[in-house]
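Hi R.,

Here's the chain you asked about this morning:
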Amino acid sequence: MHGNSAPVTSNQSRPHEDLPEVVRLHLNSTWRRPVPQHTLRAFETVESRLCCLGHRPLILDSGCGTGESSRFLARTHPDHVVIGIDKSESRLRRARTSEYENLLIARADLFDFWRLISAAGWQVSEHYLLYPNPWPKKKDLRKRLHGHPVFKNLVSLSPFLEVRSNWKLYLQEFSLALHLLTGGRRAPVRVYLPDAPITPFERKYLNSGHTLYRLQYRANGPETVA
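And here is the predicted structure, written out as tokens:
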């Protein structure tokens, strides 16, 4: 993939001043949007297939796109079950053709799927969010993951969360929101240079000369990166 991606541009140069208020508002409220039937069916399908794979630890790859990252995680974690989730049917067509028996793919709305996982009490050992939509306009704070009511559900899913982005400010806000939500220390945001890209976006951003950043959050560990 050629390097033709423009850097993220925004009319915001520092963490949004409304972020603390937004996070605290969502912390004390419950998002009650009905779960769409297609997401509920996808969840039930994955749940039924998990029963056939034994009691292995789970890894979520949220927003998996074509499933390249999901296949990488399935290959490098053969003792886990990897669940790749994306809402795009066209991107997922490639993801569904996989040689890994420990990889499950679901077409679903992420936010609703996360709520179903939370309600079902699944034990997720690792959760990956690789290059989510940054919504870089200042007015779109509440569309970012950390500005959305589902953020507390997202954080509760797993004791380990990794988020990557080519917009440092996005991860700085994410780290601040984690601190506000949990009352703990902020997860560090560091420059990240992968040995080999594991998503099309990661490959495109690297080829375009972008600096990549990574946030790793451990709910029960020190503020360090492995």
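One quick note: The two ends are 29 Å apart (CA to CA).

Cheers,
M.
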